[in-house]
Automatic annotation (TrEMBL):
Pfam families, per the entry: Yip1
Protein name (record): Yip1 domain-containing protein
Cell compartment(s), UniProt: Membrane
Entry superkingdom: Bacteria
Gene Ontology cellular-component annotations: membrane
Matching InterPro entries: Yip1_dom
Species: uncultured bacterium contig00073
This protein's UniProt keywords: Membrane, Transmembrane, Transmembrane helix
Length: 218
C-alpha cells in the first residue's frame, strides 16, 4: 500500500498548478497532456476557480472608478461568486451532455479541468488590470480595455483548444460542439427558470392554503 503524505500531496498540487502556465502558452500540447498524461488535477482546477472568484471580487471593488463604477451599498458578493462558478458548471454539464452523444473522449472531470485551466489568463490579466487602473488616466483607458478584450479572447481560445484536445475532435467539430454547448446552457437555464417558477407557485399555494385552514380553524 502506498501512502501519500501531506507534503507529497501539496507538491503534486503545486506541480499541476504550475503546469497551468505551460497550458496557457502551449495549449494543444498542454491540454493533451493535461488529461491523457495526467498532468492536471482537480485540486489545481479548484484553486484556479477560487482564484478567479477572488480576483473578480477584487476587480469590482478595487479597480479605479474611472473604469468600473459600482454601488458598494448594493454590492452582492454571492452574485459575483455565482457569476464565475455558474458558467463553469453550466459549460461542464452542457458540454459533457452533447459530447457524450458526439463520441467525445473527455469525461466531465476532464472538461471541468480544461475550463478551469483556461481561466488562468483572466486571473493574471485581471490582476494586472486592477493595478494599472490605479496609475493610468481615463484618456489612457485604451490600455485597460485592450487587456480586458485580450483576456476574454485568450481564455476563449484556450477553452476551444481544451475541448478539441480532450475530446480528440477536429477544429470544425469542436466549434460545432461548443455552439451546441451554448445552446444547451440556454436550455438548462430555461428549465431552471421554469422549475423555480413552479416551485415558487407551489410554495405560495401551500402557504395560502395553510393560512386559509388556520383562519377557518381559529
Amino acid at each position: 500500500m502506498i501512502y501519500i503524505t501531506d507534503k507529497t500531496w501539496w507538491q503534486y498540487v503545486g506541480k499541476t498548478l504550475k503546469y497551468s502556465l505551460y497550458v496557457c502558452v502551449h495549449p494543444l500540447d498542454g491540454f493533451w497532456d493535461l488529461t491523457h498524461e495526467k498532468r492536471g488535477s482537480i485540486a489545481a482546477a479548484n484553486i484556479i476557480v477560487c482564484a478567479s472568484v477572488i480576483i473578480e471580487v477584487l476587480r469590482l471593488t478595487l479597480t479605479s472608478f474611472q473604469f468600473v463604477r459600482i454601488n458598494m451599498e448594493r454590492f452582492n458578493a454571492i452574485l459575483v461568486v455565482m457569476s464565475v462558478i455558474l458558467p463553469v458548471f453550466l459549460w461542464t454539464l452542457s458540454n459533457w451532455s452533447f459530447t457524450t452523444l458526439m463520441d467525445g473522449k473527455g469525461t466531465m472531470k476532464d472538461i471541468y479541468m480544461a475550463v478551469a485551466y483556461a481561466m488562468v489568463p483572466s486571473v493574471i490579466i485581471n490582476t494586472i488590470m486592477i493595478i494599472i487602473s490605479q496609475v493610468i488616466t481615463f484618456d489612457e483607458g485604451a490600455i485597460y480595455w485592450f487587456l480586458a478584450g485580450f483576456s476574454v479572447l485568450w481564455t476563449g481560445v484556450l477553452i476551444l483548444a481544451g475541448m478539441m484536445m480532450i475530446h480528440d475532435y477536429s477544429l470544425l467539430k469542436t466549434i460545432l460542439s461548443s455552439l451546441l454547448t451554448i445552446v444547451g446552457i440556454g436550455i438548462i437555464l430555461f428549465i431552471f427558470v421554469i422549475f423555480f417558477s413552479l416551485v415558487s407557485d407551489a410554495v405560495a399555494f401551500f402557504i395560502s392554503l395553510y393560512k386559509e385552514i388556520l383562519f377557518r380553524v381559529i
